[in-house]
């Protein structure tokens, strides 16, 4: 993807420095950031969480939180007087939406749940005086049609919760584009979506960008995404731009150490031993499990599988296919309607009370949002001791010893052991959650999207950790994910789930031999992103 | 910026309350006169160096009576509120924990009935049944006042029950009672505490109002509400008789409202997240 050198400059930011006030101290978030965005260009801002990506986006729109201090920064938009960002300005309403529009990470949260899509369009168009009341309907229908909605009038009458995540993001894109902005900031526009929806949104974004000659600032932690879409890349680390240049140059021949490190975390190392399934007795057996919420089509419609001792099975599927429901049924957070779950030959489908509680020693679950699963009032050390205390394992001193040992095994050492979840990073929280799940030495560990909320490099670390612990303790793992890349590197077998049932079981290293149409669709989505 | 303003409010409330409570608790030291000592020759005197807030119709020193009366008012209000909060927390948490059970449904209907019943009428019924005394008045207050706390606790527990933290605790084999005390109740403490500080202001006013009607503490023992009732007959000619109790009631309610507002801003998780 080339762009001509003589293209017009659309947006320029100079010496942007931002700091945050935090419990008395001031922490610098951005240190003198400069960049330019040209007409018709897609510029990727690549960095891990905490690198300051979103701070840049918010600063460009004057949306920083009150605790932020803009030390300096000049924003120049083509054909306008430069804006000094360190001074409070009243002119943002002329810039927001019209000049610079923003696409948020979670479209569902960006839309008002109390308003129909129709009202979102009306509000947006009237606020900017871009349409008379009579024109609104036709403009919004055209806008939606352009984003691939075959039936715009139905969508206009829907509330955000009635649409899927991908549809919501497309609606948001239609809303921003109806204002005909010069510059579009897309802040992780697809990381909340699954592979299939992701592709749909990205394809649209790309084709519309070309068609309208939009300048796009794409903020992402996903290297594949930056590679697939952007003309140029900026790599951001701890508030510095460490490297910038044309996409192919930066990502093929990185010159900075940090970029290299970022790129290497993308290739998850495959465990040699993990490629063959062990020949052991069946540990967990699920047969014809059915679970329906309400009267609609069941979430799980006849799921059967076997997990052997020491085996790692991956469950691959789009969001909403029933993966998490299966996990919740196994650990007893939900009750299945019919079918059976057997653990070591014993039927546990409807286990309740003490019987269910005792199963906690055998089957453990690691949640996607580790931070939310940890009680913020207790320190890491206390959290890991809790299950030991519940089951009266050893005396007080032994429990403390064991918690220390486990936390050290997962890489939480020294003072970090005494910190509480709000003071730990997301990756550290996930480590604590894993240590806590392993405290009771379970035989089955279920990881429900345990790494999908993490940065690439942290993801690789956590997966490595799980692999090491698996070798060390020999438990079985049920790894639930929508990410083909994660599962391929990690699992003996992969079960592909679609609309509440398994459509295919594949050997981990032979994933590409999948024959079912849905498997191909998932693989296709993932490969497309990687190969572009 | 907001957090700073909130902590000023909180600081002001706490300081004012400390001052008022100090004056009330140290009443016998600050004003060694007998609050019950009558001096008919010196009735309805204007404020002077000898009687800072003047005297009432029996020639009793109003400042002394206000300070001594505060002991009764503040301690009884505090006790009544504490019992109401504890009962509300316990019943509300149980109702939330066993949502949809017979206990929950029955409790909610009782609360509906109590909320529909005018509080003043209820207190009068109790007084008519058991006689007028401060204890019976407080009993009436507690019987009615716990419902707000129970409702709030129940809704907070219901909300917390569906959180990932609680799911995680269940997966770890934690028993129901431990989940209740470790995961659910702590989430309710903050908001209930804030509600309690706001309610204490209302409670003082309600008790003063009932004492004013003659349902609370009986003469001659001093109490802010009954002092107001007492002075009612003379305030056209000597308005100063209302000054003492009225001033202390206003300041106490103000102090608690400031504390409540400051605590709310401090506990509100959204406010916290915004500050960082």
Report what the structure shows.
The complex is a heterodimer of chains A (532) and B (276). By secondary structure, chain A is of the alpha/beta class. Chain A is 36% helix and 25% strand. Chain A contains 20 helices and 20 strands. Chain A has a 6-stranded mixed β-sheet with strand order 6-7-8-3-9-10, with helices on both faces. In chain A, helix 15 runs parallel beside helix 17. Chain A starts with 8 loop residues before the first strand and ends with a helix. The model of chain A is unreliable at 272-276 (pLDDT under 50). Chain B has helices spanning 2-25, 27-30, 62-97, 102-116, 119-130, 134-161, 164-171, 176-212, 224-231, 243-267, 269-275. In chain B, 74% of the residues lie in helices and 0% in strands. Chain B is elongated, with a radius of gyration of 22 Å. The A-B interface holds A 20-23, 65-67, 331-333, 356-361, 364-365, 367, 369, 372-375, 377, 386-387, 390-391, 433, 436, 440 and B 1-2, 163-165, 167-175, 178, 182-183, 186, 274-276.
List the helices and strands and how they pair.
The complex is a heterodimer of chains A (532) and B (276).
Chain A lengths: L8 E14 L2 E14 L3 E5 L6 H9 L6 E10 L5 E2 L7 H4 L4 E4 L3 H4 L6 H11 L8 H11 L5 H5 L8 H13 L5 E5 L7 H18 L2 E6 L2 H7 L2 E6 L2 E7 H6 L4 H8 L17 E10 L8 E9 L3 E5 L6 H8 L7 E6 L2 E2 L5 H7 L3 E4 L3 H4 L6 H11 L5 H14 L16 H13 L5 E5 L7 H18 L2 E6 L2 H7 L2 E6 L2 E7 L9 H15 L1
Chain B lengths: L1 H24 L1 H4 L31 H36 L4 H15 L2 H12 L3 H28 L2 H8 L4 H37 L11 H8 L11 H25 L1 H7 L1
């Amino acid at each position: 993807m080339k762009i001509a050198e003589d293209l017009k400059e659309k947006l320029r930011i100079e010496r942007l420095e931002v700091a945050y006030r935090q419990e008395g101290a001031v922490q610098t978030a951005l240190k003198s950031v400069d960049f330019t965005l040209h007409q018709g260009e897609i510029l990727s801002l690549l960095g891990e969480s905490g690198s300051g990506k979103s701070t840049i986006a918010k600063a460009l729109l004057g949306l920083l939180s009150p605790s932020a201090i803009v030390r300096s920064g000049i924003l120049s938009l083509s054909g306008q007087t430069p804006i000094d960002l360190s001074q409070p300005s009243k002119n943002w309403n002329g810039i927001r939406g019209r000049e610079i529009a923003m696409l948020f990470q979670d479209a569902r949260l960006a839309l008002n749940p109390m308003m129909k899509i129709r009202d979102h369009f009306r509000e947006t168009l009237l606020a900017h005086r871009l349409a008379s009341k009579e024109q609104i309907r036709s403009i919004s229908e055209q806008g939606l049609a352009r984003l691939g909605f075959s039936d715009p009038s139905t969508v206009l009458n829907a509330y955000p919760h009635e649409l899927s995540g991908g549809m919501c993001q497309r609606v948001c894109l239609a809303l921003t584009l109806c204002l005909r902005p010069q510059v579009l900031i897309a802040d992780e526009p697809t990381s909340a979506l699954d592979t299939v929806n992701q592709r749909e949104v990205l394809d649209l974004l790309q084709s519309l960008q070309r068609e309208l000659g939009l300048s796009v600032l794409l903020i992402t932690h996903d290297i594949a995404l930056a590679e697939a879409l952007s003309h140029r890349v900026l790599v951001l680390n701890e508030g510095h731009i460490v490297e910038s240049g044309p996409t192919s140059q930066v990502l093929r021949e990185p010159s900075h150490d940090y970029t290299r490190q970022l790129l290497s975390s993308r290739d998850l190392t495959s465990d040699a031993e993990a490629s063959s399934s062990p020949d052991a007795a069946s540990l967990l057996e699920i047969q014809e499990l059915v679970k329906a919420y309400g009267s609609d089509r069941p979430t799980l419609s006849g799921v059967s599988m076997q997990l052997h001792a020491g085996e790692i099975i991956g469950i691959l599927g789009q969001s909403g296919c029933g993966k998490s429901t299966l996990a919740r049924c196994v650990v007893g957070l939900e009750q299945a309607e019919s079918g059976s779950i057997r653990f070591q030959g014993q039927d546990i489908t409807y286990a309740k009370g003490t019987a269910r509680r005792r199963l906690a020693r055998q089957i453990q679950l690691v949640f996607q949002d580790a931070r939310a699963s940890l009680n913020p009032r207790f320190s890491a050390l206390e959290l890991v001791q809790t299950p030991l205390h519940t089951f009266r394992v050893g005396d007080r001193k032994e429990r403390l010893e064991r918690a220390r040992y486990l936390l050290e095994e997962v890489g939480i050492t020294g003072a970090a052991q005494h910190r509480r979840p709000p003071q730990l990073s997301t990756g550290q929280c996930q480590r604590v959650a894993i240590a806590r799940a392993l405290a009771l030495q379970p035989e089955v560990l279920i990881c429900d999207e345990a790494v999908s909320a993490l940065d690439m490099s942290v993801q690789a670390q956590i997966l490595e950790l799980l692999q090491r612990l698996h070798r060390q303790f020999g438990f079985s793992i049920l790894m639930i994910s929508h990410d083909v890349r994660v599962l391929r590197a990690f699992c003996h077998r992969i079960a592909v789930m679609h609309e509440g049932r398994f459509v295919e079981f594949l050997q981990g290293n032979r994933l590409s031999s999948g024959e079912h149409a849905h498997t191909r669709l998932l693989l296709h989505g993932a490969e497309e992103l990687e190969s572009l | 910026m907001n957090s700073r303003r909130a902590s000023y409010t909180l600081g002001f409330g706490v300081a004012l309350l400390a001052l008022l409570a100090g004056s009330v608790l140290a009443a016998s030291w600050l004003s060694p006169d007998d609050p019950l000592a009558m001096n008919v020759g010196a009735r309805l005197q204007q404020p002077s160096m000898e009687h800072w807030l003047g005297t009432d119709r029996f020639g009793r020193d109003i400042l002394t009576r206000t300070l001594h009366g505060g002991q009764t008012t503040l301690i009884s209000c505090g006790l009544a509120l504490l019992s109401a909060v504890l009962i509300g927390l316990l019943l509300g948490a149980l109702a939330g924990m066993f949502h949809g059970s017979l206990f929950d449904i029955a409790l909610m209907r009782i609360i509906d009935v109590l909320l529909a019943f005018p509080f003043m009428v209820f207190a009068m019924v109790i007084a008519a049944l058991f006689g007028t005394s401060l204890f019976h008045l407080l009993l009436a207050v507690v019987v009615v006042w716990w419902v707000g706390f129970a409702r709030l606790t129940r809704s907070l527990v219901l909300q917390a029950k569906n959180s990932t933290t609680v799911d995680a605790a269940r997966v770890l084999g934690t028993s129901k009672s431990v989940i209740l005390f470790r995961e659910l109740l702590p989430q309710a403490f903050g908001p209930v505490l804030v509600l309690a500080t706001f309610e204490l202001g209302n409670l003082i006013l309600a008790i003063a109002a009932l004492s004013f009607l003659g349902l609370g503490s009986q003469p001659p023992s001093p109490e802010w509400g009954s002092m107001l009732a007492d002075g009612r007959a003379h305030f056209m000619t000597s308005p100063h008789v209302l000054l003492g109790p009225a001033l202390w009631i206003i300041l106490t309610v103000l102090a608690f409202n400031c504390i409540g507002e400051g605590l709310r801003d401090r506990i509100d998780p959204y406010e916290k997240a915004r500050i960082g």
